[in-house]
Specification:
Layout lengths: L1 E7 L8 H11 L5 E6 L2 E4 L3 H6 L7 E7 L3 H13 L16 E3 L1 E4 L2 E9 L14 H27 L9 H12 L4 H11 L3 H17 L4 H22 L13 E5 L4 H6 L5 E6 L7 H8 L4 E3 L4 H4 L5 E5 L4 E4 L3 H24 L13 E6 L3 H8 L5 E5 L2 H4 L7 H15 L4 E4 L29 H7 L1 H14 L5 E5 L5 H20 L10 E5 L2 H5 L1 H5 L4 E4 L1 H9 L17 H17 L2 E4 L7 H9 L4 E4 L4 H9 L3 H7 L9 H15 L1 H4 L2 H7 L4
The structure holds phosphoenolpyruvate (PEP) and magnesium ion.
């Protein structure tokens, strides 16, 4: 079948690269073959360069010839594409057929509204060779000024930070620290001087170099640091080139912001009365921007890759911040069903919100303690606001990951004392550095030598600390100094046996002596506990319990080490079984050993935030949990409805169940018959259909 049609180019820019690209994209979807002809020259419709070579301006005409089975449909759609001006302006634009997208949900909630693009295209950087010393000096001056300006801008953001994200002001401090970091600042100056290149180019090279360093340590956590470096360097580049970035300040109507990326400074600027949601092409769940937007309670989906291409200003969008689904210009039925979903989600949220500040007491009077796991300062406030009765796990790695050098005592002390003050009078369990050597920016330094083949079994965590005593002692000094401000508990991770635990305690004692010598106050009675997360520790929990003030069970690692499953490897993810009978028995053994010695036992792995897992753990005798902040209200809601005595009676025998699958159905069956009003409740049903 052959179809021939004359098509007029009516868009302002003529048949430019983007338009030609759309033609090629369309041609790729059909079996039929397209030829385009202008001025008697015919070109292949699958070659973008050939189409461009037709050089057809606005008002020009091309003849499309299509040969093949689906020629008719193809030519109709091609005509629509031309008539839509290739999506260049205004209404009635051509849009690829794809109307849905999926990204990473980072802040929950459902929102429906109009799209508003925020231009975050990167500043173009050009190479320029400097010809004499005068030019070099001038570029150095320009760079210094651009950095100073960036610092002032960051300080300004800091002074106007909204109440809800005040706790994250430290992110802006981190940005200032990055500006001073030798990897960025000194190395850019050196490049200008030695390589005689302009400031923008030198900065770009320094950032590329930092990217390489980060790449070496592939880890989501580290990615967060890289986002910060990018956002800081972009600010300096804008200052160098005088580009005024598109800003969120100007938004004066309710919209959903669509951007390539957003920085924490953008989040500080946004007005929650107008910004109903955020979509970005890039970004990860753990980026600072994501964490801050969650505090603002705006639905956010990141990592959409092509949101800025697929969505144009004014498009109607549905954003599901629970699942990561985006629907562009939805049909009326879809809008109705999402309005309903939104209502259900909001009632779910208010149901759990109502209980978040009430005690986690079961219906038969058992007092359960619920605390939060946090990774940085800013989260402490959010944790308490969400009903946490303290911090059950402060992961202290962040400050070690953002810079090339190990943090000094004062930096650590400032961070720890701020957390202590924020959470007081509630307790904070602070965990000493728990990191594999390959995950540190400092891995470039002389102290940490080669990369390990198997970091999960290598020189990590307490092993690293015991081999790098000075790094360890600096952290212990900072923790002890901050212990005067609140109820701090100190916890050593990945302890494999008694000798190692006593070794860590000896280092602590020596640090205490040095503080005594310096006349510095600290809490001498600070409780010292073990994060139980490897099977060797569970087997000798009875021995360890005689020497520890408390245990916290870290099931994230315990499951990995008990089942020999890398917790980050998607190929074996299906074998990572929290309900494996071996894991349950290990947990039970630790609880028993702790109870026998009369020490506190809590659990701080991810499973502490899962309602079904919590039922099992309660039945095994645990009464204290530390979990991700988002799960606290839901778990509290469940606990407050629970007759724990009955649960324990009905769950007897759980340790005899032979497989994870059977454990799950054992628990579900009993939970549904014993607690129908809980697992039938909308709140839990909603979660089961994918809110987390
Ligand atoms: C754990 O292993 O369960 C734990 C709480 O620590 P992390 O997830 O930081 O290793
Ligand atoms: Mg762990």
């Amino acid at each position: 079948m052959e179809e021939i049609r004359s098509l007029k180019v009516i868009n302002e820019l003529g048949m430019h690269a983007r338009a030609a690209g759309q033609i090629v994209e369309l041609a790729g979807k059909y079996k039929a073959k397209l030829f385009l002809m202008k001025d008697s020259r015919e070109v292949d419709g699958l070659s973008i360069l050939s189409i461009l070579s037709l050089a057809c301006p606005k008002g020009g005409e091309v003849e499309a010839r299509i040969i093949g089975v689906d020629a008719k449909e193809f030519i109709d759609e091609l005509e629509r594409l031309f008539k839509s001006k290739f999506g260049e302006t205004g209404m009635g634009q051509y849009r690829p057929k794809k109307k849905t997208m999926k990204g990473f949900p980072v802040s929950p909630g459902i929102t429906i509204g109009k799209a508003h693009h925020l231009d975050r295209s990167k500043t173009m950087v050009f190479y320029r060779k400097l010809i004499n010393k005068k030019e070099v000096d001038r570029e150095i001056d320009r760079f210094r000024q651009a950095v100073d300006m960036a610092k002032e801008q960051i300080q300004k953001f800091k002074s106007s930070i909204p109440e809800q994200v005040k706790g994250y002001a430290f992110v802006l401090d981190t940005h200032s620290m990055i500006l001073d970091d030798s990897l960025l600042f000194d190395s850019t100056l050196q490049r200008i001087q030695k390589e005689k290149v302009n400031a923008g180019w030198a900065l770009k090279k320094s950032v590329d170099n930092i990217h390489q360093l980060f790449k070496k340590v592939e880890d989501e956590y580290i990615g967060r640091g890289m986002d910060d470096v990018d956002s800081v360097s972009e600010r300096v580049l804008q200052n160098l080139t005088g580009v005024e970035p598109d800003s969120l300040v100007g938004i004066k109507e309710k919209v959903i912001v669509v951007a390539h990326s957003l920085s924490p400074c953008d989040i500080v600027e946004l007005n929650v009365s107008y910004v109903m949601g955020i979509l970005t092409d890039v970004g990860s769940r753990t980026s600072h921007m994501a964490i801050m937007s969650e505090a603002l309670e705006i639905p956010v989906v990141v990592g959409l890759e092509s949101a800025t291409d697929m969505i144009v200003d004014g498009d109607l969008l549905i954003v599901d911040g629970n699942t990561g689904d985006i629907i562009i210009n939805p049909e009326p039925d879809t809008i109705i069903s999402y309005e309903d979903k939104k209502k259900r989600y909001n009632s779910y949220k208010s149901a759990i919100d109502r209980v978040r500040h009430l005690p986690a007491e079961t219906s038969d009077g058992y007092k359960i303690t619920i605390k939060a796991n946090i990774e940085f300062l800013g989260e402490a406030k959010t944790a308490i606001e969400n009903g946490a009765e303290g911090i059950g796990l402060y992961r202290t790695e962040y400050l070690y990951m953002i810079k090339k050098d190990f943090p000094d005592e004062q930096t650590l002390f400032d961070d720890y004392s701020q957390i202590a003050k924020m959470v007081a009078p509630n307790p904070v369990t602070i965990r000493t550095l728990d990191i594999a050597s390959d995950k540190m920016m400092a891995s470039d330094s002389d102290m940490v030598t080669s990369r390990e083949d198997n970091p999960a079994l290598g020189l990590l965590s307490i092993r690293f600390c015991l081999s790098e005593r000075n790094v360890f002692k600096t952290q212990l000094r900072a923790i002890l100094r901050a212990s005067v401000f609140c109820n701090f508990r100190l916890m050593f991770p990945v302890i494999l046996g008694l000798g190692q635990f006593l070794g860590a305690k000896r280092v602590l004692k020596s640090v205490m002596r040095s503080l005594d010598r310096d006349g510095i106050e600290y809490n001498r009675e600070i409780p010292i506990g073990i994060l139980i997360e490897i099977p060797s520790a569970t087997s000798i929990a009875d021995i360890l319990a005689k020497h520890a003030d408390f245990f916290s069970i870290g099931t994230n690692d315990l499951i990995q080490y008990a089942l020999a499953i890398d917790r980050d490897n998607e190929h074996v993810a299906h074998l990572y079984e929290p309900f494996h009978p071996a894991v349950l028995r290990m947990i039970h053994q630790v609880v028993k050993a702790g109870n026998k010695e009369g020490i506190d036992v809590s659990l701080c792995g991810e499973i502490a935030g899962d309602p079904l897992a919590v039922l099992i753990l309660l039945s095994l005798g645990l009464e204290e949990f530390s979990m991700n902040i988002g799960s606290i209200p839901l778990i509290k809601k469940m606990i407050r409805m629970l007759p724990l005595g009955e649960v324990r009676d009905h769950f007897k025998g759980i340790l005899q169940v032979s497989t994870s699958k059977k454990v799950e159905s054992f628990v579900l069956k009993r939970a549904q018959s014993l607690l129908p009003n809980i697992f039938e409740e909308d709140v839990f049903r909603y979660r089961a259909t994918g809110t987390s």
